Amino acid sequence: MDQAELIERARCGDDLAFARLIRRWEDPVYNVVHRTIGNASDAEELTQATFVRAYEKLHKLKSAENFHSWLFSIAVNLCRDEHRRRKKWPVHMMAADEEASLNGEALKQLQQITQSTPVEELQRHQLSELLEKALQMLPQEQREAVVLKELLDMKIREVAEATGVPVNTAKTRLYTGLRNLHRIFVKINLDLESLIYEL
Amino acid sequence: MNCKYTSNHILDYHYGELEPAEAESFSRHLKTCSECARTLRELRSTSRLIGRTPPSRPGRPPSFPMTLNRTAQPAGRFHWIYGAVAAVLGLLVLASAANLHIRYDEAGFQLSMSLWPAAPAAEPEEQPPGETLLTDDRSGEWVRDIAGELAGELATEHGFLTDEQFRRLQQEQTEMMLEVVEASRQQHRQEMQQTMGDVLAAMEQNRLQDLRLVIQELDRLENRTDRQFTHTDELLYELIQNIAY
């Protein structure tokens, strides 16, 4: 059964069809939420909340083709709400003066990881943790664009839809986010070229 | 950036979202513009790192729809217990009223009934021990018989019931017992349905788990192949660069 049919059935009240949609999308949603919000336990809760809201609002989905952009726009909005609710914007997040923040406390933590362990000996989970910390240093909107594009391989147009901005804005955020990440990796002496072949 | 191409061009090229003609043109440009080439390399390496190190998901919780279904379902297990207790209590009330005796011996369960109040003639030595009226469960049929018999005996022995009262009593007792039996059947049916549902859900979970393992293995294979291709691309790129210069 293809996705459009599952969505149509779920709209007609078939819970089993919706369950199949969840199984198809729960891992991608979790990955995006985890990378956006920055911790695993909140990510689980927000993943469930995403599907609860999707279940409630499924009748508002205009086209089955847009299901995943629509689903991830829900996830992104919930992450934004969570940030607002906690009023816990990362203090180490890049500010207007990006060079200044690139020398901040968060960067020192990352440098400690790479200094204590040679890059080629970094385990996958250490690398994942390092990436998570680096992503948390980006401004929220850049992080959203990077995570959606890189983890889901969405089209840029779909990233724009999911984040609710024009395509050119999404491109700017994505480009700036990737460049900033690269600068962070350079600062902590993470040799990406050699690392890529290790993965 | 000092060339005519913007960051959007590099980004679109990086993600393969440029039109073929534009992509070809930009590809030619890359050979002469070291700044664009360097930016593209940075984007590629950063992208690869993010795409290949997704967060690991610790201990997966039960899937969400199961939670939804659970909240939507009535608390079936408790209902059948209440039903069973009601049935037993009903039977005990009826037994005490009708002077019923339920006993268990080597012949199995036996249900016997004598008249109430016991006739003086029915002394223990004269009464046949354990006079068996019913030895098995015939459900609604015997309930109706017992209720009718009981009401009839009461009316004829003591004469304190009118015909109308007798009919009402007979009907009420019959309905009460039939309700208890029917409730018990319903609960049993629900129990069976729930068990079947659980078994089917478990089978589906197993199937999906197998499927997930196969997909993971395929992904791993794809990643390995992709890495090898990428490596080959890089070598070719360097080779072309060396030849060009």
Helix amount of chain A, in percent?
A: over 70%
Secondary-structure-based class of chain A equals mainly alpha
For the record, give the distance between the C-alpha atoms at the N and C termini of chain B, rounded to a whole number: 23 Å
What overall geometry of chain A do the principal axes of the alpha carbons give? elongated
Strand content of the residues of chain A, in percent?
Answer: under 5%
Order of helices and strands of chain A: HHHHHHHHHHH
Largest beta-sheet characterization of chain B = 3 strands, antiparallel
Which value, in Å, is the CA radius of gyration of chain B? 41 Å
The total count of helices of chain A amounts to 11
DSSP, total strands of chain B? 3
Q: What radius of gyration of chain A results from the CA coordinates?
A: 18 Å
Describe the overall structure.
The complex is a heterodimer of chains A (199) and B (245). Chain A has 199 residues and is an all-alpha fold. Chain A has helices at residues 3-11, 15-37, 40-57, 67-86, 98-101, 105-116, 124-136, 140-152, 156-163, 167-187, 192-198. The two termini of chain A are 34 Å apart. Chain B is mainly alpha-helical and 245 residues long. In chain B, 71% of the residues lie in helices and 6% in strands. Chain B contains 7 helices and 3 strands, in the order H-H-H-H-H-E-E-E-H-H. In chain B, strands 1-2-3 form a 3-stranded antiparallel beta sheet. In chain B, helix 5 packs antiparallel against helix 7 (163-244). Chain B is rod-shaped, with a radius of gyration of 41 Å.
